[in-house]
TrEMBL record:
This is Uncharacterized protein. PANTHER family: CXC1-LIKE CYSTEINE CLUSTER ASSOCIATED WITH KDZ TRANSPOSASES DOMAIN-CONTAINING PROTEIN, EXPRESSED PROTEIN. Gene3D superfamilies: Ribonuclease H-like superfamily/Ribonuclease H (3.30.420.10). One of its GO terms (molecular function) is nucleic acid binding. It comes from the Eukaryota. The lineage of its organism: Eukaryota, Fungi, Dikarya, Basidiomycota, Agaricomycotina.
Length: 151
């Protein structure tokens, strides 16, 4: 955490890694995790704000959706104007069916669950293929990995 904050010029001395019980004091700014402006705006409007790892297609279903839209865009004829390109992009984004987006979200949820259960990358890939119809993996997944010789 310190390295990332130093790289971005945001490091402050005596910055806490976490507050006691993950509860920051009211109005604290020199604290472990003040909310970003974006998070405050989203939560103030009654929505939940959830950040996914950047550019990690296994854990971020939006990257999978974007990949499907890019594939569709590559198949469109070349455009000569910026406006035509914008229309093609919107059309390609709209062309990805909601069911496919839901499947990407479920796949990401399975990978997150696999990593939370302690599986390695190759084990997680095997488990998510085997249980592709589920949002989470069974609690017996480690036993099944051993039986399959993947442990």
């Amino acid at each position: 955490m310190e390295v990332i904050l130093r790289e971005r010029g945001l490091w402050r001395d005596k910055l806490l890694a976490q507050c006691k019980d993950f509860k920051c004091k009211e109005g604290a700014t020199n604290c472990c995790s003040p909310k970003s402006h974006l998070e405050e705006v989203i939560t103030a409007r009654g929505h939940e704000c959830d950040f996914y790892p950047k550019f990690h297609c296994e854990l971020n279903f939006i990257e999978q959706y974007w990949g499907a839209a890019k594939l569709r865009y590559r198949l469109t004829p070349r455009t000569q104007s910026f406006e035509a390109m914008q229309k093609n992009i919107v059309a390609c984004l709209d062309d990805v069916p909601p069911l496919q987006i839901h499947r990407y979200a479920n796949r990401s949820a399975r990978f997150m669950d696999a990593y939370a259960k302690g599986l390695s990358g190759s084990q997680a890939a095997w488990a998510t293929k085997r249980y592709h119809g589920h949002r989470v993996l069974p609690n017996t997944i480690m036993e099944e990995l051993e039986k399959a010789g993947k442990a």
